[in-house]
Amino acid sequence: MTTTTLFLLFAPSGEAGGRGLGIFLFQMAAFIAIIYFLLIRPKVQQEKKHKERLAQIARGDEIVTMGGLIGVVVHIKDDQVTIRSGESKVIVQRDRIADVRAGGGTAEKGA
Q1: SS3 category, 86
Q2: Mean confidence (pLDDT) of the chain
Q3: What pairing do the DSSP bridges indicate for beta strands 97-101 and 88-93?
Q4: With contact defined as beta carbons under 8 Å apart, do 72 and 106 qualify?
Q5: Mean pLDDT value of segment 66-92
Q6: Nearest to 27 by CA among 9, 5, 3, 11
Q7: What pLDDT is attached to residue 22?
Q8: Tens digit of pLDDT for each residue in 15-65?
Q9: In whole angstroms, what is the distance from residue 55 CA to residue 101 CA?
Q10: Helices and strands, number each (H, E), in the chain
Q11: Strand, coil or helix: what is 84?
């Protein structure tokens, strides 16, 4: 079934004919617009803002990974970020970083 056929199946029937169909199509368009502005658009904007924050990571920033590991950035190379967490260094992929807290700690010297 095509989308148009599906819309016509749920369209109100009556003697108004075209007017009832027009109202129905307006209601469907309004419903789709509401879903877009309440659910889809905010998620896209949030993802865009997160990608911008990941692109601006610098040494000394405190980060939280998706696994919950908290550390301070000591080295950045392409899509890999080396962090110091406690007494160890860990390499994580840039896209696995959940949160960035700028200037959260001091970067280790010489790393």
Answers
A1: coil
A2: 85
A3: unpaired
A4: yes
A5: 95
A6: 11
A7: 87
A8: 555 678 889 999 999 999 999 999 999 999 999 999 999 999 999 999 999
A9: 13
A10: 3, 5
A11: strand
Give dist(CA 77, CA 85) in Å, integer. 18
d(CA 64, CA 100): 7
Query: Is the Cβ–Cβ distance between 74 and 108 less than 8 Å?
Result: yes
β-pairing, 97-101 vs 62-65, is antiparallel
Q: What is the pTM of this model?
A: 0.65
Token pair for residue 70? 């908290």
Strands of the 88-93 sheet, one edge to the other: 88-93, 80-85, 70-77, 62-65, 97-101
Residues forming beta bridges with residue 64, ordered by sequence position: 70, 99
How is residue 78 annotated by DSSP? T
Structure tokens at 40: 């889809």
Burial, 79: exposed, middle or buried (Cβ in 10 Å; 0-12, 13-18, 19+)? Answer: exposed
Give Cα 103 distance to the centre of its chain: 23
Taking the C-alpha atoms of residue 64 and residue 44, their distance in angstroms, rounded to an integer, is 21
